[in-house]
Amino acid sequence: MSVIIAAANRKPGANDADSAALLKTLMAYTGKFTIDADKFTTKVDISWNELLTGTDQARFLKLEGDKLSIQTAEQISAVFPGKKVVGTLTWERER
Fold first, then answer.
1. If you write DSSP's letter for every residue of 43-76 in order, what string do you get?
2. What are the angstrom distances between the C-alpha of 43 and each of 29, 68, 78?
3. Predicted TM-score of the model (pTM)
4. Which tens digit of pLDDT belongs to each residue from 36-65?
5. What is the mean pLDDT of residues 61-82?
6. pLDDT at position 5, please?
7. Which of 39, 43, 19, 40 is nearest to 29 (CA)?
8. Exposed, middle or buried by CB within 10 Å (0-12, 13-18, 19+), for 65?
9. Could you give the strand order of the β-sheet that contains 39-47, starting from the edge strand earlier in sequence?
């Protein structure tokens, strides 16, 4: 499995500082995953942030009608050190 999440309105970096700042608006990792009921866990083998490489990333699935939501457990942010966050992604099927 691979995951790539990027903020909206990203622009190419014009210099090294801009390019480095783009990392704060991106998240990416890959790895094998397992599914158990409403929980899927990815064993991260490659990550944009080496703090995640080698860890298990658990996510929780919720399907309601045409909406699929994937949510993290509360965790310390890799992007905002020291802050606790819960991430939620929601997709809605087009009809």
1. EEEEESSTTTTT-EEEEEEEEETTEEEEEEPSEE
2. 10, 22, 17
3. 0.72
4. 999 999 999 999 888 889 999 999 999 999
5. 89
6. 87
7. 43
8. exposed
9. 2-6, 26-36, 39-47, 56-64, 67-72, 88-92
